User: Which sequence fits this backbone?
């Protein structure tokens, strides 16, 4: 199966470098996506530009792909299901939940000079970054790509209720499946509360398993693709 890999904030497609060979060895065709504004130096990129790049990859896939969204990019994966419900086999949401219609994509941190730079590690202390050693933290921070303001503050537009029929896998790294299920039941993710087919897969890692547990992460994604 084609597996489209969308990295979260501050990451370009190279974030998947250690996951790609593992998925290939498991018999899948991983496709890390290059998003406008995440690695190409285009600070004017918008959320719509990024969604167009995702949809182009969905349309180019020979069959129905699994669309994987990491962290904030869970929303991009869900937007793909909304725009192409007949072409997306399944979405896998890793360490994140999709923003609802009318909300900003990822307006979580300060904007400086038209971009949202990586804010440092203080906001992520605890379960998010517990398995990142200092070398990994330094490497991440030094290569982090500032997110264009028009991406971070882009407004999410969801229009096709057929998205709720697209199967969803919630991959749970820094939280447990039980916690995710409870949050959704409590109304923290109105979109996933309406998903017709929802399953949970556990992954014992922090928020960035492509860095700390690439082999285990690939196995979980392969399981999502095969289920």
Assistant:
């Amino acid at each position: 199966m084609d597996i489209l890999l969308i990295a979260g904030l501050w990451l370009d497609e190279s974030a998947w470098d250690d996951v790609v060979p593992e998925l290939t060895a498991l018999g899948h065709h991983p496709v890390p996506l290059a998003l406008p504004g995440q690695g190409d130096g285009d600070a004017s990129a918008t959320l719509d530009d990024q969604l167009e790049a995702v949809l182009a990859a969905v349309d180019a896939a020979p069959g129905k792909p699994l669309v994987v969204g990491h962290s904030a990019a869970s929303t991009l994966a869900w937007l793909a299901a909304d725009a192409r419900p007949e072409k997306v086999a399944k979405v896998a949401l890793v360490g994140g939940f999709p923003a609802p219609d009318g909300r900003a994509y990822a307006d979580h941190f300060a904007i400086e000079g038209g971009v949202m730079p990586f804010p440092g590690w203080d906001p992520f202390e605890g379960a998010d970054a517990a398995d990142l050693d200092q070398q990994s933290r330094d490497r991440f921070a030094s290569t982090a790509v500032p997110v264009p303001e028009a991406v971070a503050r882009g407004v999410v537009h969801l229009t096709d209720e057929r998205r709720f029929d697209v199967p969803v896998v919630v991959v749970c790294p820094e939280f447990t499946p039980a916690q995710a299920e409870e949050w959704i039941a409590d109304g923290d993710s109105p979109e996933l509360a309406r998903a017709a087919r929802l399953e949970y897969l556990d992954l014992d890692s922090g928020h960035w398993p492509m860095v700390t547990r690439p082999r285990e992460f690939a196995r979980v994604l392969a399981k999502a693709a095969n289920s």
Q: What stands out?
A: The mean pLDDT is 97. The longest strand covers residues 2-6. Residues 51 and 76 are 6 Å apart (CA to CA).
